[in-house]
Amino acid sequence: MPLNFERSWSDGDLDELRRSAARFIDSEMVPHDAESRRRGHVGHEIWRQAGALGFLCADIPDEFGGGGGDFRHEAVFYEEMGRRGLSGMATSVHSIVAHYFLNHGTDAQKERYLPRLASGELVGAIAMTEPGAGSDLQAVRTRAERRGEHYLINGSKTFITNGYLAGVVLLVCKTDPSQGARGTSILVVETKDLPGYRVGRVLDKMGMKAQDTSELFFDDVAVPADALLGGKEGQGFYQLMSDLPYERLIIGVQALACMEGAYEATLQYVRERQAFGQPIANFQNTKFKLAEVATQIQVGRAFIDRCVERIVAGTLDTATASMAKLWGSEAQGRVLDELLQLWGGYGYMNESLIARMYADARVQRIYGGTSEIMKEVISRAL
User: So which residues are the catalytic ones?
Assistant: First the structure.
């Protein structure tokens, strides 16, 4: 059964944007995906191409070089990549970085970084996780000590998306370790030719092979005092918490788009694949599995669309965004597992779209806050 993929939040302009995004992705990204997966990153050029066409920072005001749109304009690009199983270009993290600047940066920081992020000149990353600090961000050990007109940074980060290509890193660190969470700050680190800054290995992951997830090292790295995001120490934890609904809804949007793309690919496959003298699509088990998946996607579409409408209206709360992330990532895992089964042995081959989607999906329940953390956040609002 074909699904109706219409979004309740879309309109004519967004439909045209979607067609443009699909053309760009099909012509400039899909043909190079296998190469990107082999080398572990997509390279800088595709970022600049996307920026030149207005696909980056689409919801950043045009006065800062952005597209002047809202979350829906961002969602279009996420969805079109997600439906094709493309995870190498982490525009979501890039957009999150831009929103930290927009929502918390000084005027000078906005003017310096937002246009360069929108153009793709700079790739953005945010460095939170450390070898000994994941979900518990209060446990970060990276230290930034004020020395006159500079901060001196020492520490390391791991699992950093866009880490290899990043031109600007928002670094979560302790400026006053004695204050716990209140001693946490975010520093803006421009990486080019920066003494003491080093990118470690591009990590070998289960999935998302084309995405440059890296280790970062800071050994007596000096950055100017005005690199403090927002210009005031101790605001890091507040800044991190305030932007979580945006980040978590992105993950929900991507999860649903991936499910839709996987469903479409599987529907085509089972109609073409023959077994026992007939298409696999004719078997009752196949029909029932597809019916179950189609129902989950349609129900999810109603919820995720409502969340998109609420974030555009400024009314999406943390608990509901956490529900979108929890439901989306968990449903994505279930749905892709069911669909992969219908592909048989071909579904286990990395050359198949469904296999890559399956491997990519597993981390959705971990990054951006684990499913367990989502349940804790939701339960506090009950």
Answer: 247
